[in-house]
Amino acid sequence: MPRQVACFVFALSLLRPAAGGDYSFAHEGVMGTSLEMVVRADDAQAARAAEDRALREIDRLAAILSNHDPSSEFRRWQAGPVGPTPVSPELIEVLAAGDAWRERSGGAFDPRIQVFAELWSEAARRDRAPTRDERDAATARAAGPAWRLIPSAGVAERLSDAPLTLDAIAKGYIVERACAAAMDGGPAVRGVVLNVGGDLRVQGEIERRVAVAGPRLGSEATDPLAWISLKDRAVASSGRKHRGYSIQGRWRSHILDPRSGEPAEGILAASVIAERSEDADALATILNVLTPDEGLRLVDSLRGVACLIVAADGRVLRNAAWLAYEDPPAKPAPGAGKAGGGWGGEHELLVRFTINRPQEAGRYRRPYVAIWIEDEKGTPVRNLLFWVSTGGAGPFQWLPDLKRWYADVMTRVKVTKFDPFVIAQPTRPPGEYSALWDGKDDKGNLVKPGEYTVLIEAVREQGGHGLIRQKVTLGDDAFAKELKGNDEIKSARLEYRKRGAER
Q: Which of 83, 205, 295, 494 could form a Cys-Cys staple with 287, CB 3.0–4.6 A?
């Protein structure tokens, strides 16, 4: 199977539950990002109950650990007076883990980084880099110890008024416990795959093939950096492609070096496999701060940890432990990659889109979305993205409501074997997505310059339907085009550009 169609085929695989019953669910607006979940269960009722347990545990722990909700216990503790305060066992546990990773990483992990995050956020708002005086003031504010823990008494004592964040570890902690909650439903629930914004865990009687996305926007739709196979393990990815600070036209990573207060620029992305999700989460951030050699030495000093690092100079580094999880890439189709006068050797087409958020607050179910390309004759040549969910009423009731995709693509697809996998990639904001077309068709062959049509179709269960169609001419000239949104797709943008262009 060509790797280029992997995202498309994975989504189709969810139409047919595997032995034991695999049920998938997808939500937006979960901990500031998206959630994808697969439950292997005896029946749909058990799967939906597992989903509900996981979501309730996520809500419970987010109410304790969130840095974005002013009413969370963590934020209320910070807003209170300096001094000892009784706190929950969960908050003490995560604060203690923060202490441990700060020591192990030589300061590359530090919750006091929030001081510098606020500095750079304000700099981006003003569209100017922080001044030396502003940098010095932030460094001084973050210099002292942040807290002292007395676990036996259930007390956390704040030692300074510096703002703090647990974002680089709390999500992994929550994912770990949400998986445990989902599995706590008796023998009817056999396994869980949970992915919350790049923090992914596979647990129970399920093994999952995972595609590690590349470090650039939209790379989920092109060849992954690596394929790994996971069972009872966690993988977390961190990098700069989805989030950062734009200042005077320059994109800077949102990952900051606590030792200098500056954006970490030496690493594009890092992925970590570990036994526990919180360890993978913290290490993925740490590896974006350390040099590649420092990161590899740290990971090799830890039991049962594997990593893949993409350096800013393009090098892709793996430690020896990573190779035990890595699957060989699928063989390309015969003749794949033939030039044929194609434009993909020099250019690429980035499709960005934002999902409309329903009126109700909080998380919401992701709509079905399909993005594909047709040639000038109206023949589909490339499927970039396809989402369904086997939760709720299941996909078959709603697939025909993707009217154009169903007529143009679904009725022509002849697939006898599916290769299910999930995507490991850095966290991104909820509802914001991108897909990159590398100039190849679904067989892996480069297509010729000429006129094509980009189609983006979305439908929500018991909701609206929207279709965006845009003809484009792909050749030597770069362009960017804003597309009008609809009920389900808030906005979309096409960027035809030179290969390797940064944000």
A: 295
